[in-house]
C-alpha cells in the first residue's frame, strides 16, 4: 500500500459526459495512486459505468480531461489506451464464447505478439507466436485455469468465466486495470477467491480501479474509495472514513426525515 | 488433396465446350465467394463485393486497353485498385456495423456503378467496355498455349485461384484470422485488449477486395467485355446465396455452395429447360436451406456421420437383443 510514486497514475479533472439533456457525469475529478486498489462506488445511476466508459475511451468526454501517466489521453481510442497500459474488463462474463479458453487469452496477448502481415502469411511469426502462447499459458496458470486451456468457454462454470475475463485483461500486461463489477453475481466463496486474485494482481505491480456494489468486498479490498452521486464526486478517502461519512450513508439509504434532507442540503 | 487436384486436372476433358466455359467462370466464382468469406469473418456482410470485383475488372481492362499495360500485370494492378477502393470506402463504411454496414456497402457499390454508367469516357457508359485485350498467348517454340481456349484458361484460372485460396487460408489460420474472429464475437472486448478494430476491419475488407479484384481481372480478360449490369446487386445476391447455402463457418463451405449451385443451375436446370427460372429456383433453394440446413452444406457431412453412427449403434443394439 506504500505509494511508490506520489504523482497519480490515473487522474480525471472536471470530467463531464452528457447524453442529450442527461448529464451522466458532471464535473467529476479523482486521482488514482500507482499501486493502489481504488474503489469507485455510488448508488445506481450515479454515473460509475459512464465514468469507466469515458476513462477507457469508449466515449469521448463532453468536457474535462483524463490523464494517464501524466499524459492527457482524453478521447483516445480504447485500443490506443490499452497499448499504453490502461486495460478494462466488462460486467458479467464478456468473453469470446466460441473460442477455447487458451484462444481467449491468446487474443489478450494481441499487443505482445506483434508481427508483420507477410511474416504471418509465411509463418515467420512462429517464434513470437510460441512465446505468446507460453505467456498465455502462464497467465492461465496464475488463475489456476491451465487444465482447462482447450475447453470451449461455454463449458466453463460462471466463476471460472469471470476469472478468465480477468486473465484476458491481464494478458494485455496492463499498468492500470479497470474492473467493472468484478464480484457481481458471485457467492461469498467466489467473492473471497476473486478478492485474493485482485490483491495478487496488485502485488504484481498493477494498479487496480474497480466499480463495485458489494460493499463488504469494496471496504475490505480498497485502499481508497471514491463515492459518486448524481454524476459528481461525493466523498473520497480510505474505507473507514467513507464508511462513516454521513453524506455517503444518506446517498445510499436516503435521509431519515424530510427535515434531515433539508439539513443535508 | 492429390486426388482433388487430379480430378480438377482431368475435369475439363470430360466436359463439352460450353461446359468448359462454365467451368472457367465457376473457378473465378470460387475465388469471389471465398474472398467474400474473409470479410464475413469479422462479422460484416457487404452488398458491394461484386462491384469491388468490377473495380478490379474495369481497372485491369482499362490499364490494358488504354495504357498498354501487359495483361498479367494489369490484373495485379486492377486488384490493387480494388483494394485501394476498399481502403477509401472503409472510412465511411466502418463507422457503421451490421445492418447499417450492409446498406452502406450497397449504396457505395451503386455509386461506383453510377460512375461507370455516367462517365462514358473512360468507362464506356451503360454498354461498358468491349474488346478487352485477352490474356497473352504463350509461345515459347516447344510450348504454345492459346488462352482463347477455355481449357487453357481454365488451368490458368485454376492456378491463380489456388494460389489465392492458399493465401486466404494462411491468413485465416494465422493470428490475423484469430483477431478477425475475435472482432466478430466481441469487438468491445477485443478493442479493450488493444485490437484496433477499425484497422482490422479495414484489413479484412482490403484483403477480400484485393482477391475479388483478382477474380474481376480473370473475368474481364476471359470474357473480353464488362458492363455495369454484370456487377449489379442481382449478381451480389447470387454470391450471398452461395455463401449462405454453403455455410461460412468453414473455409470450404462457400466453395461447396458455389459448386453445388452452379452444377444445379447449369446441368440440372439446363437439362430441364428451366435455366431462365434461375432466380426463382435460387430463391427456393435459399429458403429451403435456411429452413432445413441453417448451417449450410458444410454441416451436412458431420450431421450425416452422426446419424450414421446412431443408426449403426441402434442396429447393433437391436442385433444384440435378437441374439
Provide a descriptive summary of the structure in words:
The complex is a heterodimer of chains A (about 260) and B (about 325). Chain A is α/β, with parallel strands linked by helices and about 260 residues long. Chain A has 2 domains: about 180 residues, P-loop containing nucleotide triphosphate hydrolases (Rossmann fold, 3-Layer(aba) Sandwich), CATH 3.40.50; about 80 residues, no CATH class. Chain A has 11 helices and 10 strands. In chain A, helix 3 packs across helix 5, helix 3 packs parallel to helix 6 and helix 5 packs across helix 6. The C terminus of chain A is likely disordered. By secondary structure, chain B is mainly α. Chain B folds into 2 domains: about 220 residues, no CATH class; about 90 residues, no CATH class. Chain B has a two-stranded antiparallel ribbon with strand order 1-2. At the A-B interface, helix 2, helix 3, helix 4 and helix 6 of A face helix 7, helix 8 and helix 9 of B.
Shape of chain A: globular
Q: How many structural domains in the coordinates of chain B?
A: 2
Question: How many distinct helices of chain A?
Answer: 11
Measured between the Cα atoms of the first and last residue of chain B, the distance is 44 Å
Beta content of chain B comes to under 5%
Q: Record the strand order, biggest sheet of chain B.
A: 1-2
Q: State the CATH superfamily name of the largest domain in chain A.
A: P-loop containing nucleotide triphosphate hydrolases
List its salient traits.
heterodimer, A: 265 residues, alpha/beta, Rossmann fold, four-stranded antiparallel sheet, disordered C terminus, B: 323 residues, 2 domains, 14 helices, globular
Give a short summary of the structure.
Chain A is an alpha/beta fold and 265 residues long. Chain A is 39% helix and 23% strand.
Structural topology:
The complex is a heterodimer of chains A (265) and B (323).
Chain A: E1 8-19, E2 22-33, E3 37-41, H1 48-55, E4 63-68, E5 71-72, H2 78-84, E6 86-88, H3 101-108, H4 117-122, H5 126-142, H6 158-171, E7 176-180, H7 188-203, E8 207-211, H8 215-221, E9 224-229, E10 232-237, H9 239-244, H10 246-253, H11 258-264
Parallel strand pairs in A: 3-8, 3-9, 6-7, 7-8
Antiparallel strand pairs in A: 1-2, 1-4, 4-5, 9-10
Helix pairs in contact in A: 3-5, 3-6, 5-6
Chain B: H1 2-10, H2 17-40, H3 49-67, H4 71-93, H5 98-118, H6 120-123, E1 138-139, E2 144-145, H7 150-173, H8 175-185, H9 187-192, H10 197-223, H11 233-246, H12 253-272, H13 278-292, H14 300-322
Antiparallel strand pairs in B: 1-2
Helix pairs in contact in B: 2-7, 2-10, 2-11, 2-12, 3-4, 3-5, 3-10, 4-10, 7-10, 8-10, 11-12, 11-13
Amino acid at each position: 500500500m506504500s505509494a511508490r510514486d506520489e504523482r497519480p497514475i490515473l487522474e480525471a479533472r472536471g470530467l463531464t459526459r452528457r447524453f442529450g439533456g442527461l448529464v451522466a457525469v458532471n464535473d467529476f475529478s479523482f486521482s488514482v495512486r500507482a499501486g493502489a486498489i481504488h474503489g469507485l462506488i455510488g448508488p445506481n445511476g450515479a454515473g460509475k459505468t459512464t465514468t469507466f466508459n469515458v476513462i477507457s475511451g469508449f466515449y469521448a468526454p463532453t468536457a474535462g480531461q483524463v490523464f494517464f501517466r501524466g499524459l492527457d489521453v482524453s478521447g483516445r481510442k480504447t485500443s490506443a489506451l490499452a497499448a499504453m497500459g490502461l486495460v478494462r474488463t466488462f460486467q458479467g462474463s464478456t468473453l469470446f464464447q466460441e473460442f477455447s479458453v487458451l484462444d481467449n487469452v491468446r487474443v489478450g496477448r494481441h499487443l505482445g505478439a506483434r508481427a508483420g502481415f507477410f511474416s504471418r502469411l509465411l509463418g515467420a511469426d512462429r517464434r513470437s507466436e510460441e512465446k505468446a502462447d507460453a505467456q498465455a499459458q502462464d497467465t492461465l496458470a496464475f488463475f489456476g485455469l491451465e487444465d482447462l486451456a482447450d475447453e470451449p468457454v461455454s463449458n466453463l462454470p460462471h466463476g471460472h468465466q469471470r476469472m478468465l475475463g480477468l486473465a484476458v485483461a491481464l494478458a494485455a500486461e496492463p499498468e492500470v486495470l479497470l474492473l467493472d463489477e468484478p464480484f457481481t453475481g458471485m457467492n461469498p466463496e467466489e467473492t473471497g477467491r476473486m478478492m485474493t486474485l485482485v490483491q495478487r494482481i496488485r502485488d504484481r505491480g498493477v494498479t487496480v480501479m474497480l466499480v463495485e456494489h458489494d460493499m463488504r468486498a469494496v471496504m475490505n479490498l480498497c485502499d481508497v474509495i471514491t463515492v459518486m452521486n448524481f454524476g459528481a464526486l461525493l466523498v473520497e478517502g480510505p474505507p473507514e472514513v467513507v464508511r462513516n461519512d454521513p453524506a455517503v450513508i444518506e446517498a445510499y439509504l436516503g435521509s431519515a426525515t424530510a427535515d434531515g434532507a433539508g439539513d443535508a442540503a | 488433396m492429390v486426388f482433388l487436384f487430379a480430378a480438377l486436372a482431368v475435369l475439363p476433358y470430360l466436359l463439352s465446350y460450353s461446359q468448359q466455359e462454365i467451368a472457367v467462370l465457376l473457378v473465378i466464382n470460387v475465388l469471389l465467394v471465398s474472398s467474400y468469406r474473409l470479410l464475413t469473418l469479422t462479422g460484416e456482410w457487404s452488398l458491394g463485393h461484386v462491384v469491388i470485383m468490377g473495380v478490379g475488372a474495369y481497372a485491369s481492362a482499362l490499364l490494358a486497353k488504354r495504357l498498354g499495360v501487359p495483361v498479367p500485370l494489369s490484373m495485379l494492378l486492377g486488384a490493387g485498385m480494388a483494394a485501394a477502393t476498399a481502403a477509401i470506402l472503409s472510412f465511411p463504411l466502418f463507422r457503421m456495423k451490421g445492418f447499417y454496414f450492409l446498406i452502406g456497402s450497397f449504396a457505395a457499390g451503386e455509386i461506383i456503378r453510377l460512375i461507370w454508367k455516367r462517365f462514358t469516357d473512360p468507362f464506356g457508359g451503360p454498354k461498358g467496355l468491349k474488346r478487352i485485350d485477352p490474356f497473352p498467348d504463350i509461345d515459347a517454340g516447344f510450348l504454345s498455349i492459346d488462352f482463347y481456349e477455355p481449357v487453357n484458361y481454365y488451368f490458368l484460372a485454376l492456378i491463380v485461384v489456388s494460389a489465392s485460396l492458399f493465401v486466404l487460408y494462411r491468413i485465416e489460420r494465422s493470428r490475423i484470422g484469430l483477431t478477425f474472429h475475435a472482432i466478430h464475437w466481441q469487438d468491445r472486448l477485443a478493442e479493450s485488449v488493444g485490437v484496433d478494430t477499425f484497422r482490422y476491419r479495414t484489413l479484412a475488407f482490403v484483403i477480400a477486395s484485393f482477391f475479388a479484384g483478382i477474380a474481376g481481372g480473370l473475368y474481364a480478360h476471359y470474357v473480353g467485355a464488362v458492363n455495369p449490369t454484370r456487377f449489379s446487386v442481382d449478381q451480389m445476391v447470387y454470391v450471398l446465396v452461395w455463401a449462405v447455402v454453403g455455410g461460412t463457418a468453414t473455409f470450404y463451405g462457400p466453395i461447396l455452395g458455389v459448386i453445388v449451385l452452379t452444377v444445379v443451375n447449369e446441368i440440372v436446370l439446363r437439362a430441364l429447360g428451366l435455366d431462365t427460372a434461375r432466380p426463382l429456383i435460387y430463391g427456393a433453394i435459399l429458403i429451403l436451406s435456411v429452413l432445413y440446413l441453417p448451417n449450410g452444406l458444410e454441416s451436412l457431412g458431420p450431421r450425416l456421420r452422426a446419424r450414421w453412427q446412431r443408426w449403426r449403434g441402434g442396429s447393433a443394439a437391436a442385433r444384440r437383443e435378437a441374439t
